[in-house]
User: What shape does this take?
Amino acid sequence: MLAAMRAARELSDAEIAARCREGDEAAWSELVDRYSRYIYAILTQAYRLSHHEAEDVFQEVFSRAFDKLDSLRDDAAIKPWLAQMARRAAIDRHRSSGREVPAEEILEGQVDREIERLDEALSLQQAMEILPEHCHEIIDRFFARDESYRTIGGALDIPPGTIASRISRCLGKLKDHLSQAEGDADVTLGRK
Amino acid sequence: MTLSDQPESDFTERLRALPPAPDDWVEAAKEIPRMRRQINEILPHLGELATDRAAETAELESAIEAAGFTPEPALVAELRRRLADT
Assistant: This one.
C-alpha cells in the first residue's frame, strides 16, 4: 500500500481522477491528501463555517465527489470541480442554518476573492511538493502548522538556533522552483 | 505579479493560508470507498428504514450490526447521508 501511495503522489490530477473512477483506493487517498487543505480552507475561511459545520460539509464534499466522479467531464479540472462542490455545500449549510447572512451576490463576491487567494496558496503548496523532504517539512511546520522553533527543533531533531536560517534557505529554493515553473509556463504560452 | 515576485510578507501569508484539515477528518474522507462497500452490504438489511430519512441513530446502528458490521460513528453518518440522498 505504501508503494502504491508513493506512486499515486507522482500522478497528475487527471490520472488521479481516472484511477479513482476505476476504484483505486491509493489514488483516492492521494486525492484527499492533495485537496483536503484547500476544501477545509474554503469552508472555514471563505464561508466561515464553524468547526462542527465544516466537519460535516467537508465529509459531504468528499462523499459527493466520490459518488459523482463519473460526471466529471474534464479529469484535469478536478480542483475547480471540487471547489464548486464545496461552495454549493457551504451555501446550502448557511441557508439551512437559518442564520442571517449577507446577500448572496455580496457573499459570493467576497468568496471569489478569497478563493483566488486560496488558489495561489495551493499553487505554492504544490510547488512545495517538489522541494527536498527536509525543506517541505520545515516550511510546512513553521508556516502552515504555525509551530514554534522549539517544537520544530524537537520534532526534526535540529538545534532551534539553526531553524531560521534553514527556513530562509528553503524559502529561497521554493522561490527558485516557482520562478522556473512560471518561466516554463511563459514559454508554453509563447510569452518569451 | 507572479507568485515568485511577491514580497516576502505576501509569500508567507500564502503559506499560512492552507493549514492542514484535522487528521481525523482527512482519515474519514479516505475511508469513503471502504464505507461505501460496507453500506452496499448493509442496505439490503435496512428494510423499511431504507426510505426513512429521519431514522433514529439507534435504528441505523441496529441495521449495521445486523449486517455484521461495527456501527462506528463515521459509518452511521455515511449511512444517514446515503438515506438523505435517496
